[in-house]
Amino acid sequence: MTDAPLATQAPPGGDGLLDSGQPAAGLAADALAAHLAAEAAGFLRELPSVDLHTLRRVGAALHTFEQLLDPGWSQDLREELARLGLLLGQERAYGRRLARLLAGLDSLTCTDTTGPERTAGPVPQQREAEGLLARHPGAPKARALLERQLTLGRSRAHTTALQELGSARFHALADRMTLLVSDLPLRPAADRAPANALLPCAVAEASVLVGAVEALPLERGAVPYTGDMLHDPGDDQPWHQLRGLVLRTQYALEVCGPLLGARAARPAAALSDLARVLARHRDAAEAAEAAALAALTPRITPATAYVLGVVHADQRLEVEAARHVFSSTWPDLDRSGWLTDAWLTNR
Amino acid sequence: MTDAPLATQAPPGGDGLLDSGQPAAGLAADALAAHLAAEAAGFLRELPSVDLHTLRRVGAALHTFEQLLDPGWSQDLREELARLGLLLGQERAYGRRLARLLAGLDSLTCTDTTGPERTAGPVPQQREAEGLLARHPGAPKARALLERQLTLGRSRAHTTALQELGSARFHALADRMTLLVSDLPLRPAADRAPANALLPCAVAEASVLVGAVEALPLERGAVPYTGDMLHDPGDDQPWHQLRGLVLRTQYALEVCGPLLGARAARPAAALSDLARVLARHRDAAEAAEAAALAALTPRITPATAYVLGVVHADQRLEVEAARHVFSSTWPDLDRSGWLTDAWLTNR
User: Fold this and answer.
1) I want to staple B221 with a disulfide (CB 3.0 to 4.6 A). Which of A110, A176, B197, B327 is the partner?
2) A30 in contact with B at a CB cutoff of 8 Å?
3) Tens digits of per-residue pLDDT, B28-41?
4) What is the pLDDT confidence band of residue B332, given thresholds at 50, 70 and 90?
5) Residue B13 belongs to some domain of the structure
6) Which chain A residues are closer than 8 Å to B145 by Cβ?
């Protein structure tokens, strides 16, 4: 994984442009080319394994800075990267779902004396901890059922991924990434744009994010225990899309890091935290769905189905908790005035 | 129901003692006798129906101010009142459980356009609301099952209550309440104690409450979404007992209202709010248990059992929400320094 912000990486084609702290000189195209070249080189170095973060970072940069890039070429490459990311991501997604559901179920059925491992809140007092489903007759069968179904899904996704990595389509993509290391296809006038031209692109990306957040019921999400995730969950999809927007804005800030200097650090860190919260949201929502699907398996016992109902609700509670964290922390970032015109010129 | 604080009631045997705003004169026994006489008169007036609040208020006063009362007599009467309250409370408890479970299930399965009714949080935006179990095939059967089982339980409790109200034991209790209107059995020296002697009794009651609260994991409860109600619920019992202690302290403050004047209003209101939160805790815990019991019914379908699992988890979430509210609001009351020696003497 290459999660370090770009500002801390040595610029491969450095010409003084990326010296942070200095007013940015140089050209936007050079800075963008250096960023994409570094990511593409990383992609090629890792082959035959593929880092999904790299795919996402390249795709995000192609999207955010598309005004500088050859439109047909960048659109094509973005679609290929998105398709590959989705396809290769399935195996890992099944793994995450499986791990999350088994951990949840084990915690629901635990009879430890040390207490179950939970992420939120202070450490509970040392005492006999016991999940609500401890010794429930349906728990072992529900566990076996979830394990069987999700392991099967993961195996299938693994096979599909292997086929993809051996395909002509994948090799064509690798060739395009090779080209990206040395030669970035630009729009006609883009090669003379100053480095500062990157900033409006990042601002536009941030505006899309802000607009998407404003369409969500954050005020309600900030109230704990509304029970909405069971009683009125609405659509999960806008929240899932939000994660993509948060990451794109985070990556845009990293590309602009040299232009923004230290001021980029706080919003970048905040966005990274929010992306993690939204990943938890996605994982919990998918796990809840997997539990609901498992409950539709023919010929399961009522006890198994009951346990799956509790597991389903437990994961939806995690969805609600993630929305609560996002809804409570977003206003802080928003109030900081990040990536507004005033924030940009104040340097 | 007689929920108005005593301070606003005309003292039946008034001798100027209960004029709030004035330094308290008169005797503790007279004030207590007046309070108990008013409650007992209310009890007799309502017959043959019984107000459970009255039973609880009389029992609480007998407990809090037992140092003034004939110990054998007050202990006996308290036990009779507690037994009757428990017995007559069953019918209403089944009714509350039934109403709560059906409302929860209806909300989980709703497909309204106006959104489900929820108590917490701002009003959701007007849009298509849909519970997580909307159109679930198990929902109608689960609803019918819960309705059947809890209606049966309520009917049985009703029969038991009717038998009790016709029993010699109940008539003996009514006779004792009649005596209470005119003649309060005191300890030998208690009849000369000044009205201020009521205060240490109320302080002692409050200390018991504070001690019980301090034994609970409030710091953790104040963190939302720990998931403890499913994963590590601990014992509900201390929280149920807490409600009794909160009410006893609230009633003690009301008896002492004339001595304390306006300063009693804020803690009394806070205690009343906390008692309501703990009643919600109790109702949700009992409803969750009823859903779990219903899931043990032989020959139910897996779909029905699944729905009951979700309903169970939903009610446990309500338990967690109630503990969260209690844990978040108690510190405010505690910080106010109410019923400490300093608070008592500052008048």
Assistant:
1) B327
2) no
3) 999 999 999 999 99
4) confident
5) no
6) none
